[in-house]
Design brief:
Blueprint: H1 3-18, E1 27-33, E2 38-41, E3 57-60, E4 65-67, H2 76-85, E5 91-95, H3 98-105, H4 115-118, E6 127-128, H5 133-155, E7 164-167, E8 171-176, H6 179-202, H7 211-219, H8 235-238
Parallel strand pairs: 6-7
Antiparallel strand pairs: 1-2, 1-5, 2-3, 3-4, 5-8, 7-8
Amino acid sequence: MLEKLKQEVYNANMSLPKLGLVTFTWGNVSGIDREKGLFVIKPSGVAYEQLKPDDMVVVNLDGDVVEGDLNPSSDTPTHAYLYRHFKNIGGITHTHSPWGVSFAAAKMDIPAVSTTHADTFYGDIPCVPALNEAQIRSAYELNTGAVIVSEFERRGIDPDATPAALVSQHGPFSWGPTPEKSVYNAKVLEVSAEISYHALQSTRSDIHVPQYLLDKHYYRKHGANAYYGQGSAQSVTHISHV
């Protein structure tokens, strides 16, 4: 079942240690088949060097196992909640990458202070509220997804334009149209967090990029008028050729 998606999710998970985004088993990637209403996710607590594509677990959008001999990631209810509410996403990554966790531990957004950040995230990466005791005791992982969605709705943040969040005192979740893209966004988040940390140590000024610079860098990679790279909408016409 979903053999191609299993391979994609396996490949995405295996890229996490290569990119320095996980220590031990502290992370997971999933990918969804929207037509079937099923997603594939890393099994819980299995070392990356022991993983195989066939170890990936197929679950439904209620978080129930449909296929697989291993227990799915303990974060499965979070992934399921995000898939149910953020309808355009095709992959989700969760890590405990240290720079991202540093901002989560401080309960701080990662501010958009550089074009490195603005190329991928249209504004600050929000740090959503910490779960209260009742939320943790009742349905911790499901409520983790719920606080992310609730905070995006409260702030009016587009999850497609800002494809990541920090959960206070926990860590980063990122997403994208594919599992691979969700990992890419996780790495950009980590680099942006490190840049922001060092920048904030250097000044007490508001160092957010101005809106026009944010717009320029975000929209040259995204949307109908994007021109970055080789396959974007305007990439052929942006540069004159002789």
